[in-house]
């Protein structure tokens, strides 16, 4: 089943969700580690190159994901969820998408503040828009850092909520995102 239906996520939505989840956690780990590398490390240039290349691909992937979300109807919320749970789910997902977009855009703004394009592997380049605000590299760098940490905090709550639905409430919340 490629498309979502009223009760389950389809293959496309599941691939978007799980591939994004793995890539986001990977980018966080690499980002966290790479900022402390020193000039003499063999990863000093390679790690940011990978972080930025994969980050730009994730930006494209996320835009495609959002487009998909808006053109295909998503499954309905489970009727066993209280109104408060349904609201928390909506707000939680909105926060995940919004913070993710801020991280992706701030990452672009850090990397292009000096006017140089971002080289995405050896495949293509994403042009710089130049320095749009004063101290762009530092400002975007702080935003990138704190939103990345905030995302991880919300993801943790998101995971705990999914596990609670699965193991305690024993409802279909997690199953319909997997099977
Ligand atoms: C979900 C996606 C991403 C996550 C979770 C993420 C996470 C991180 C983290 C945790 C750091 C270390 C921050 C610090 O301690 O200062 C970092 C640094 C960095 N990220 Fe990302 N990042 C993402 C996407 C991107 C993208 C799309 C780009 C650019 C195209 C990018 C460019 C950078 C750069 C240039 C740094 C180094 C900043 C500095 O030297 O202070 N990131 N990222
Ligand atoms: C970086 C990690 C993750 C991010 C950014 C993330 C983000 C999201 C987002 C934005 C949605 C809403 C999808 C929609 O548009 O309907 C969603 C749904 C979901 N996620 Fe995650 N997720 C992550 C990891 C996980 C993990 C590890 C689990 C399981 C333990 C999980 C379980 C679920 C479930 C069950 C749903 C469907 C909820 C529903 O039916 O409304 N997610 N996730």
CATH class: Mainly Alpha
Distance between the termini: 10 Å
Please list the strands of the largest sheet in the order they lie side by side.
1-2
Proportion of residues in helical segments: 55-70%
CATH topology title: Fumarate Reductase Cytochrome B subunit
Total number of β-strand segments? 2
Shape: elongated
Bound small-molecule species: protoporphyrin IX containing FE
Q: Tell me the count of domains.
A: 1
**Secondary-structure arrangement, i.e. CATH architecture:** Up-down Bundle
Q: Please state roughly what percent of the residues sit in beta strands, choosing from under 5%, 5-15%, 15-25%, 25-35%, 35-45% or over 45%.
A: under 5%
Order of helical and strand elements:
HHHEEHH
Query: Largest sheet at a glance?
Result: 2 strands, antiparallel
Q: Nearest-angstrom radius of gyration?
A: 18 Å
The assigned structural class equals mainly alpha
Instruction: Count the DSSP helices.
Output: 5
């Amino acid at each position: 089943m490629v498309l979502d239906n009223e009760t389950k996520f389809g293959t496309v939505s599941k691939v978007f969700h799980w591939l994004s989840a793995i890539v986001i956690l990977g980018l966080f780990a690499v980002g966290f580690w790479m900022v402390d590398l020193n000039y003499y490390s063999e990863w000093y240039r390679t790690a940011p190159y990978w972080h930025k290349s994969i980050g730009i691909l994730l930006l494209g992937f996320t835009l495609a994901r959002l487009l998909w979300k808006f053109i295909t109807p998503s499954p309905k919320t489970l009727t066993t969820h209280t109104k408060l749970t349904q609201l928390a789910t909506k707000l939680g997902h909105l926060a995940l998408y919004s913070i993710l977009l801020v991280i992706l855009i701030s990452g672009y703004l850090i990397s292009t503040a000096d006017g140089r394009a971002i080289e995405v592997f050896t495949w293509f380049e994403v042009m710089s828009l130049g320095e749009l605000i004063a101290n762009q590299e530092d400002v975007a760098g702080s935003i990138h850092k704190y939103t990345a940490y905030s995302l991880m905090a919300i993801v943790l709550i998101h995971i705990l909520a999914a596990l609670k639905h699965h193991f305690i409430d024993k409802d279909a919340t997690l199953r319909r995102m997997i099977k």
